[in-house]
Amino acid sequence: MVTLIKNVISLSPGLKHFLKRSRDGYKRGVLRYRCYSYEKKRNAAHMGWHRPNNLAYSKRSAELIFWYHKLEKGLCLPPENRRFFGRYPAQQTLDLLTKWNRDGLSKQATVYKAAVGVLEAYRDFVATQDSTKPDVAATLTELEAFLNGHEQSEQIYRTPIEFKHLPEDSYDILYALSMSRRSTRNFRDQRVAMALVEKAAKLAQLSPSACNRQPWRLHIYDDKSHIEQMLKLQNGNRGFGHTIPMLAVVCCDMGAFFDSTERNEPPLDGGLFLMSFLLALQSLGLATCCLNWCVDPKVDQQGHKLGNIPQNEKILTFLAIGYAAEDTVVPLSARRPLSDLIVTH
């Protein structure tokens, strides 16, 4: 019967083409549903602060940053717009700091110290407002009650700070750095010092993120056998993967976001961090190659398991890091004209 069907199909090229298109369309439809369902479940499982078990440092710190950064942004508005504001964000910040202390989280944590620094600046602002207004007086009393139990914050946590103007040649420097960065697919057999990666990551941490929550996570692998196993899950490293001395997996902590309405933020924030990280590595003499993570749900789970990456962290991309070999050549990677990019209104 199977042979008969094959013979009939072979006599009708149009039917064969139709059946192939139908089969491919079915496979794509199934894959779309699997990917959609997978992302939907992961967003529901990991995005959201308002749960009874929201005691983890990562979620608590993200929520704290979210609220105190609202105050920090308000303090940076034009002077004519700096009317009394921020009572609710201030109350949320104070409440979270109280819970922080109650749950035994460290007061030495950077996030905690930064929150105190913002509250000090906000208190100084509130003190300049009309204290005969009930909201102003109540807010100032609440702030004083909390801050009186703390030493004055260190200078590095004082906010806002003065806007810094750059030297005139800053664009030329950045342009030269950007022109030199190209995806490299031929690495020297030379170990990459972790200190250089940390230095680049420290610079990349200055990247903007939604409400400054800094949800980025970097998983670093420099064991050759482990790298080889990880690269088997990614199909963009053929022909040069064996030369990669260090592999980074750039992730985003989904627990940093308040619910699924922020579902687009992980790749956006991660992309901002990644670009800064690439340029920082380039400035330190290291070469890189982004290896996209376009995989089905099953492979994504294998990546989490093999890389020992927590489920709440969304894998965004693999990144090869190393020193370019002496005979390395790189793509020109010509860019589109600006007319393809800019739409004026």
Q: How would you describe what is shown here?
A:
This protein is α+β, with helices and mostly antiparallel strands. The relative contact order is 0.12. It contains twelve helices and four strands; from the N terminus they run H-H-H-H-H-H-H-H-E-H-E-H-E-H-E-H. Helix 3 packs antiparallel against helix 4. It has two domains: 57-157; 181-322, NADH Oxidase. The N and C termini lie far apart (63 Å). The protein has a four-stranded antiparallel β-sheet with strand order 1-2-4-3, sandwiched between helices. 50% of the residues lie in helices and 9% in strands.
What tags apply to this protein structure?
345 residues, alpha+beta, NADH Oxidase, four-stranded antiparallel β-sheet, 9% strand, globular
List the helices and strands and how they pair.
Layout: H1 2-10, H2 13-46, H3 57-74, H4 87-102, H5 110-126, H6 134-147, H7 170-180, H8 194-204, E1 216-221, H9 224-231, E2 246-253, H10 265-283, E3 287-292, H11 297-307, E4 313-322, H12 338-341
Antiparallel strand pairs: 1-2, 2-4, 3-4
Helix pairs in contact: 3-4, 3-5, 4-5, 4-6, 5-6, 8-10
